[in-house]
Amino acid sequence: MIYTSQICLDTICQGNLGYLLNMALTFHDAIRTCICHARTVDDISPTCNDADDFLRFFDEKVRAVRAATDGRQPPDITSAADVSLSTLSAYSEEEVRQLIMQSPTKSAALDPIPTFLVKELVDVLLPYVTAMVNASLRDGRLPPSQKHAVVTPLLKKSGLDADELKNYRPVSNLTFMSKLVERAVVSRLTHYLDAHGLMPQVQSAYRRHHSTETALVKVLSDIYTAIDRQQVILLGLLDLSAAFDCVDHTILLQQLRAKFGIC
């Protein structure tokens, strides 16, 4: 790795960034080929289904869930925010550097160069990456090239029938750049919600210093409190099928605008 870094630095000093990126692509393809060839039969679940079968199944599953609630009235908005957020402030190069270095060193098949190399060359790439992040925040959208993903069907747990489509869940492998923009948006939104006390107090998912453990502590605390008061306890658990895939975007935007002032 030290030898590779020195080559990169020497190439940058000579002003030949194009050559460096081509070298990175070749290196990335070679590593990916080695990894793919190193896979054994045990790593792959044999199935009689092909990509079209999985596509039809996942698509029909979401359509069926949506059809079950089609025509229902949207939920009433009972509260309104007295603050608003209409734009996301631009990121400085130092802020983008922190986002890059704090990101997991994982690469997607759609990435032009591996993530570890982005971190190695962060000083060279930083102005361009920062411009891309700020352009997405300013325009409120991602480039079409960053809206693609490699979707892999994985068995929900080992031992399940590999020929049953319902036993699989789709996992999307996104590009590093799209995930970087996502982290930038999350950081700005989280700061806004925390600063104005808009984050739901009982939400444990997708929050720093929160987890399934804090959710369980809250539930157990409420149960023990009810027991001490000699009250009857009823616990209802809901498992939503394809929850994220079935989010109604119109309702979501209405809720964000009314409850959180995000417009």
Distance between the termini: 46 Å
Instruction: Give the overall form.
Output: globular
Number of helices: 9
Sheet/helix structural class: mainly alpha
Low-pLDDT windows of residues: 1-9, 34-43
Percent range for helical residues? 40-55%
Largest β-sheet summary = 2 strands, antiparallel
Order of helices and strands: HHHHHHEEHHH
Q: How many strands in all?
A: 2
> In angstroms, what is the radius of gyration?
23 Å
Give the helix/strand layout.
Elements: H1 2-13, H2 17-38, H3 51-68, H4 93-102, H5 115-120, H6 122-139, E1 149-155, E2 168-174, H7 176-195, H8 212-228, H9 249-260
Antiparallel strand pairs: 1-2
Helix pairs in contact: 4-6, 6-7
Describe this structure in words.
This protein has a two-stranded antiparallel sheet with strand order 1-2. It has about 260 residues and is mainly alpha-helical. The protein starts with a helix and ends with a helix. The chain has helices at about 1-15, 15-40, 50-70, 95-100, 115-120, 120-140, 175-195, 210-230, 250-260; strands at about 150-155, 170-175. Helix 4 packs across helix 6 (about 120-140) and helix 6 crosses helix 7 (about 175-195). It contains nine helices and two strands, in the order H-H-H-H-H-H-E-E-H-H-H. The longest helix is centred in the N-terminal third of the chain and has 22 residues, at about 15-40. The protein is globular and about 70 Å long.
